[in-house]
Amino acid sequence: MIRIRDAAPGDEDVLAELHARSRAVYYGAGGHEVAAVPDERYRESWRKMVADDRLTVLVAVSPDDIAGVITLDANGVFPTNAPDEKRVRLVGIFVEPSQWSTGVGSTLMTRFISITRQSNAVGEVDVWERNSRAIRFYERHGWTRDGTSRPGPAGADYVGFVHKP
Questions:
Q1: Would you tell me the crossing angle of helices 12-29 and 40-51 to the nearest 10 degrees?
Q2: How far is CA 84 from CA 80, 106, 125, in A?
Q3: In this structure, are strands 122-128 and 87-95 parallel, antiparallel, or unpaired?
Q4: How far is CA 152 from the centre of its chain?
Q5: For the whole model, what pTM was predicted?
Q6: DSSP H or E stretch at residue 163
Q7: 6: nearest Cα among 108, 105, 113
Q8: Which of 101, 107, 113, 157 has the smallest C-beta neighbourhood within 10 Å, fewest atoms?
Q9: All residues at 6 or more sequence positions from 157 whose CB lies less than 8 Å from its CB, including other chains
């Protein structure tokens, strides 16, 4: 059983480590090597996100360990692709690689979609174009490309996706 709860003080290092492991796998699959261990700057960014009342950081616990995390921004902390439209930005969703395809990510995504629908807002996210696994995941959950992009690592863009209420 997967349980969703708010991230709490004390979760930050676990989240930084989970995020680093997850991104090392998906960037590596796209030909871009990144560290699988977070540095202090990385850990500090997670401390700031968990403490920021303008962001929502939710963790998936399965059964007693944090297996995934999703960060939402409904308050304009991060730039949006459509500033004149009510949007909730999916800042990031990361699942422990050993937990991929077990329902952790889908459970977190279902919560995100519920939040955007309750807010009557469009969900938005940018996905690294070489992360084909993530692109399939978003498309399976009803996301569509919005035609936006921004530069990303290794000469590959981040492409914008939206989820309409």
A1: 120
A2: 9, 29, 16
A3: parallel
A4: 16
A5: 0.94
A6: strand 158-163
A7: 108
A8: 101
A9: 128, 129, 149, 150, 151
Instruction: For tokens 């850990």, name the residue.
Output: 43
Confidence of residue 63 (pLDDT cuts 50, 70, 90): confident
Q: CA nearest 107: which of 76, 54, 66, 144? A: 66
Instruction: For 93-129, write each residue's pLDDT tens digit.
Output: 999 999 999 999 999 999 999 999 999 999 999 999 9
Return the amino acid letter for 92: G
Pull the structure tokens for residue 12.
């930050």
Residue type, 135: I
How far is it, in rounded angstroms, from Cα 128 to Cα 108?
A: 19
Residues 6+ apart with CB under 8 A from 39: none
The three-state DSSP-derived secondary structure of 60-100 is: EECCCCEEEEEEEECCCCCCCCCCCCCEEEEEEEEECHHHC
> Minimal CA–CA distance to 21: which of 91, 73, 99?
99
